[in-house]
Design brief:
The protein is of the alpha+beta class. The protein is built from 16 helices and seven strands. The protein has two domains: 12-284, Rhopdopsin 7-helix transmembrane proteins, CATH 1.20.1070; 436-571, Heat Shock Protein 90 (2-Layer Sandwich), CATH 3.30.565.
Length: 572
């Protein structure tokens, strides 16, 4: 759980704003206020109608909102955060409403606009548009914060439902403004505003202020929240200039308000773009570190091969010496005693070699685990974001649907690669053992076992804050891991009870299941080393392993590991 939280702290939707971001946001709001104050007295000044301004402005705004929605959905596919999906839907809804507003604008594509628009359609679409987006912001602010969400069963289905909901909402509002045009109160008289527009604009304006307040009072504010505050401030000035202070189309307030809206739609997009640039820089640094680590691994591998060859020579020489000593034992008693002493010494040396080899394997597995987690998984996750961006650009009708399907397959493969990489890293060496200790590692292992096998597992820790030094922590963890693996493979149990306690100068680990059981006296199957591996790990730390089982009555495995060496170090 700690790993996932740290991994997510690279996106603007999870990062806390620093002083630089706060100053930049305050500067943007202050500049908006200054420009608004300078333009407000002249908002009713009539200017020449520039018909090309409307489609240019609306097209740029729709593209900005579509790109912002695509990037936010891409982050949702990594973080599985429901607030991210909500705000992405808000931006997608804004883009759809901008398109509908452009098509229905009177005199642009048709005298009264397309889509069956009437004289009031464009004005009502503008009001619905500028009320729908702040409502999405309010829903975003009231949703659960990032970090409390869990991975949905089908993230792609959630994204599709969000897209469908945004498009359907835009279609419904467009239908109300077109088909339901006769039942809507008039808020425009030709190109001028009617008196009734004051009530509608006031209501829309209050919704924007409510959204701004919801973001300001939100706890655990992120960089994304900060820029959404700036966006809403610009929207408030947009409505004020384009609908409150002006009196007709193509006056200064009309043009200035829409420029405010276009600028507002670009704030979050620019922040997301800079966020991606920083992620690219991290990828480059990660690749450089990976190459250096690869060269170091090659060098260490060569050293280990040399050490292995030397050890094999020593073992061969020792074997020859022992054979010679055994032959001498048949001739005289004194030589036999000397050979026995040499044999005991050789066994102690071999035990030391085995312990060294086990420690080296653990160190190598820990290093490989961190490399897979910190380097490859981050790279694949970032590539997944870029795949989403490329998929959005491929939806252009001129590109064809084949590229969209191909990109969907590529993204699916990337998801599988990320999941496999994290699983391999966890199996090699769970970082929770190093970062949080044995207790957290045991809890994670039990939880992971229950999720994978579907078998209920109970964990008892005495004391609850039990901690061990190395190599006892690693040995205890590996013994528990191997025991649970054996239960999952062979026991067919419905309940597993794990008990880890410290009794004065020793640690006792007990794993009990209610499965099919077995006969410990029967010879093991060829290629089955589960119990032998448990004995070997217990032997390396001077532990004692006992197994109690019978067919049909489950099994109990108990390991007692003395901690005399640990106590001696604490006393010294």
């Amino acid at each position: 759980m700690g790993e996932s939280a740290d991994e997510a702290r690279v996106f603007i939707s999870t990062l806390r704003p620093e002083r630089r971001e706060r100053r930049l946001a305050v500067g943007a709001v202050a500049a908006s206020i200054v420009v608004f104050a300078a333009l407000a007295p002249f908002a009713k000044t009539q200017l020449a109608p520039v018909w090309a301004f409307v489609p240019i402005y609306q097209s740029a705004l729709a593209v900005c909102d579509l790109l912002t929605a695509a990037l936010l959905i891409g982050q949702f596919s990594i973080l599985y955060s429901r607030p991210l999906l909500i705000i992405a839907g808000g931006y997608l809804l804004s883009a759809c409403m901008a398109i509908a507003h452009t098509l229905s604008f009177p005199g642009l594509f048709a005298p009264t606009g397309l889509l069956g628009a009437g004289p009031q359609t464009t004005a009502w679409l503008y009001m619905m548009w500028h009320a729908a987006f702040p409502l999405a912001v309010i829903a975003y602010a009231r949703a659960r914060p990032v970090g409390e969400d869990v991975r949905p069963a089908a993230p792609w289905l959630s994204a599709l439902l969000c897209i469908a909901a945004a498009v359907c909402a835009a279609c419904v509002m467009t239908a109300i403004a077109t088909i339901g045009h006769p039942w809507l109160p008039p808020i425009m008289q030709g190109s001028h505003e009617a008196r009734t527009i004051v009530w509608v604009v006031s209501f829309v304006w209050l919704i924007n202020f409510a959204a701004l307040a919801a973001l300001i009072v939100r706890r655990a504010r992120t960089v994304l929240d900060l820029w959404l505050i700036v966006v809403l401030c610009a929207w408030i000035f947009d409505i004020a200039l384009a609908s409150v202070l002006n009196h007709a189309r193509f006056d200064l307030g009309f043009y200035a308000g829409r420029i405010y809206g276009l600028i507002a739609s670009s704030f979050v997009l620019v922040a997301l773009t800079f966020d991606n640039i920083k992620l690219y820089a991290r990828i480059v640094l990660a690749l450089d570190r990976e190459r250096a680590e690869h060269r170091l691994v090659q060098h260490r591998t060569a050293q280990l091969n040399e050490a292995k060859a030397l050890l094999e020579q020593r073992v061969a020489a020792r074997t020859a010496a022992l054979a010679e000593s055994n032959r001498d034992l048949l001739r005289e008693v004194t030589e036999r005693k000397r050979a026995q002493a040499a044999l005991v010494l050789s066994q102690e040396e071999l035990r030391e070699v085995a312990a060294i080899g086990s420690s080296a394997r653990e160190q190598e597995m820990r290093r490989i685990s961190r490399e897979l987690h910190d380097e490859l998984a981050q790279t694949l996750a970032t590539l997944r974001i870029e795949t989403d961006r490329l998929r959005e650009s491929a939806t252009d009708p001129s590109g064809g649907a084949a590229r969209v399907h191909r990109l969907a397959a590529m993204r699916s493969l990337l998801d599988e690669a990320v999941a496999s990489t994290r699983r391999i890293a966890s199996d090699l060496r769970p970082l929770v053992l190093d970062d949080l200790g044995l207790v957290a590692a045991a809890q994670w292992l039990v939880q992971n076992f229950s999720q994978r096998s579907g078998t209920a597992c109970e964990l008892t820790l005495e004391p609850p804050d039990l901690e061990l030094d190395e190599p006892y922590a690693t040995a205890t963890f590996r013994i528990l891991q191997e025991s649970l693996t054996n239960v999952a493979r062979h026991a067919h149990a419905s309940l597993v009870q794990v008990r880890l306690t410290r009794e004065h100068d020793r640690v006792v680990l007990t794993v009990r299941d209610d499965g099919v059981g077995f006969d410990p006296a029967r010879p093991r199957k060829p290629g089955s080393f589960g119990l032998a591996g448990l004995r070997e790990r217990a032997y390396l730390v001077d532990g004692e392993l006992s197994i109690e089982s019978s067919p049909g009555h489950g099994a109990k495995i108990e390991v007692r590991i003395p901690l005399r060496a640990v106590q001696e170090r604490e006393l010294s």
